[in-house]
Amino acid sequence: MEIVKLNRQKLNDFIHSDEYKTMPNVPISFHRAISHINNPRVQDDDTLLILVYETELIGYLGIIPDLVFVNNIPERMAWMSCIWIHPNARGKGIAKKMTELSVELYNNKILATEYTPVAETLYNKLGKFDDLVIKKGVRIFRRSCMQKVLPARYPKAAFLFPFLSLHDTIINLFHDPFLKRKNSVSKNYEIELLEEPDESCIKFAENFYQVELTRRSHKELEWFFNFHWIKETISDSLQSKRYHFSSESRSFKTIAVKISQDNELIAFLIVTVRDKHIKTPYLYVKPNHEEVVNETINNIMCEHNIEILTSYQNAIQNHFNKSISFLNSKSISRKYLQSKGFNLKVTETMLQDGDGDCGFV
User: Fold this and answer.
1) Which among 348, 202, 346, 188 has a CA at the least distance from the CA of 270?
2) Cβ distance 272 to 246 under 8 Å?
3) Sequence-ordered list of residues with C-beta below 8 angstroms from that of 134, at least 6 positions apart, any chain
4) What residue spans of the chain are helical by DSSP H?
5) Per-residue pLDDT tens for 285-333?
6) Residue from 89, 20, 32 nearest 62 by CA
7) Residue 336: which of 154, 42, 68, 76 has the closest Cα?
8) Sign of dihedral through CA atoms 269, 294, 350, 131?
9) Which sequence spans correspond to the domains of the chain?
């Protein structure tokens, strides 16, 4: 068994190699690798990808180097990203070896979230992680979309697709007219949709840094906007079939939203729109202006024919009933783990929805 660690330069060489071009299973998509390489918080000797070989690739684990701020002091750490083991190599302790190595490489300063049930079982079995915090959220369904949601969650239910499709069509026929109504935002508010945050947005966000764990500066937000992990495609490419994690969608957009009142900035947020599903990776809003944020999100959803909104932002989940048109909603949660010995003290409001790799997918 051979374990290979790829830093920034080695990862770049790897994705341009003949080996990468001919592998039946690639450990990272090309555009995701480019994003990892351009992460402004990566140092040259940081390991970004761990590969395990036995004549061929049998496992890999992705890592995202980052900073957290403890008592205003930046501390280097990393997020677990993706982990995969070839079906023929499972049960050999490969996932255990890679996870232990990643914890060691980053001096027991690792965070993890949005992991699969299989990965959670591994982390619990290893005994190297403690619970950090559980972030509560809401998932809002603007339209009936059982034909997408149910088979995706329960593959064995795929045979019900024709019946679910008919169900969705009937429900949406009566409900859709209500979804087309945009909110009339008060005249003294100005809404701007930007391709990426401007200087005023960054300065506004800095006012909230004292209560934020990762504190995204202009460089990190510029990276977030310009180096997506999801590529827009008309149909699935050959490479996407070789990579076992999400890498392509029919649509994927990142939008910066700037909200001002009487020429004063009162909210800045970032939303991602992927195949009629909208998320809220970053949100900064002054108190008592949460309703206009929700009104703005509702209007964006109207423009993009959004079916589902997922958010862990308190300003949204505590006020959406007043300003967002929807069919149904449910409470959700996101669990965060930290490696033993890290000993961070974090509340859920200190974490943004997009921290780690969540905002990229």
Assistant:
1) 202
2) no
3) 333, 334, 335, 336, 348
4) 8-15, 18-22, 30-37, 94-105, 117-126, 146-153, 161-179, 199-206, 218-226, 238-242, 290-303, 314-317, 320-323
5) 999 999 999 999 999 998 998 999 999 999 999 888 888 888 889 999 9
6) 32
7) 68
8) negative
9) 2-133, 137-334+347-360
71: Cβ–Cβ under 8 A, 6 or more apart, which residues?
none
Residue 210, CA atoms < 13 Å, CB-side half-sphere: 1
pLDDT digits (tens, 9 = 90+) for 57-92: 999 999 999 999 998 999 999 999 999 999 999 999
104 residue type, one letter: E
Whether pLDDT at 248 is above 80? yes
Identity (one letter) of the amino acid at 162?
Answer: P
Domains 2-133 and 137-334+347-360 share a fold: yes
Tokens standing for residue 241: 């079939």
CATH fold of 137-334+347-360 reads Aminopeptidase (3.40.630)
How many angstroms separate the Cα of 226 from the Cα of each of 31, 239, 276, 360? 11, 21, 21, 11
Q: Is 259 exposed, middle or buried (0-12, 13-18, 19+ CB in 10 A)?
A: buried
**Tokens 């002091």, located at residue:** 73
Residue 179 scores a pLDDT above 80: no
Which pTM does this prediction carry? 0.90
Tokens of residue 288, six digits: 């008592």
Architecture of domain 2-133: 3-Layer(aba) Sandwich (3.40)
Least confident segment among 36-50, 180-194, 244-258: 180-194
Concatenate the DSSP letters of all residues of 235-301 into one string: S--HHHHH-SS--EES-EEEEEEEEEETTEEEEEEEEEEETTEEEEEEEEE-TT-HHHHHHHHHHHH
| β-pairing verdict for 328-339 and 110-113 | antiparallel
